């Protein structure tokens, strides 16, 4: 298979995968054989790509040009109005928390290569769950700090992030409350597919430093029940709780009303699975760029609770985007 411009590849954790052998939308393939790159859009479209050649290597490079002017799917007044709508829904008991997002878009040069952007992100904004993928009709450069699902055999780990500031002093009681709500949601999601009594929380609201900001991060662990695999894990836990809200079904319905464009790979899942070794890691698709229709897109958002200030939440979305947009602009 060929994009007509450059060979397909996936890069994550110092490993380069080339030689595209298979592409499927069936997550059961992740329990079969081989090394797979995985991209799941927030809307649930799954792409699993098996590669023949997987080896340690530096990140591939390619031509990159700064994108044009950015536009947002929600401007500041619209975003702040959305925050107020969510606060009203919380007052009415519809949701406890919801993650309101917006998608930024900018025109890019025809010869701009996602490999070039991925290499620049790796140098300028290193992230623990970064991944770059180029497939037919799909080009993604992700610098995610957030682990959605890691699997080693039957052992599963999720590390939801809620709470963001420039420094630890910026974190508020609202951030901790938001984190605890999402941890409860993740526990419940994993509980649908976990063995009885195996879900635990070994780390709660720990402060982590990342380029340009800090996050509150918690760790949830479980062991999946016998007979369960990747399809059951995804069905029980997707979309990730940290980018939806609680209760999840109510938050999803509310966000569909408030967000004018699809999120795409942003807030979905991006990562790899080694089916032979029965291990893999999928990131929450935040801090993520993707190419679509001659545009470079990037999503940013914030978790809204009753204690949210609309202006502060808008600025949180700007903070999360700022460093990544600087890197993309060279």
Automatic annotation (TrEMBL):
EC numbers on record: 2.6.1.85
InterPro entries reported for this sequence: ADC_synthase (IPR005801), Anth_synth_I-like (IPR019999), Chorismate_C (IPR015890)
PANTHER family (alphabetical): AMINOBENZOATE/ANTHRANILATE SYNTHASE, AMINODEOXYCHORISMATE SYNTHASE COMPONENT 1
Protein name: Para-aminobenzoate synthetase component 1
Gene source species: Actinomadura algeriensis
Domain Chorismate-utilising enzyme C-terminal residues, every copy: 76-320
Transmembrane segments: none
SUPFAM superfamilies according to UniProt: ADC synthase
Keywords: Aminotransferase, Transferase
Annotated Pfam families: Chorismate_bind (PF00425)
Superkingdom of this protein's organism: Bacteria
Keyword Transferase annotated: yes
Broad class of enzyme this protein falls into: transferase
GO molecular function: 4-amino-4-deoxychorismate synthase activity
Signal peptide span: none
Key word Transferase present: yes
Gene3D superfamilies: Anthranilate synthase
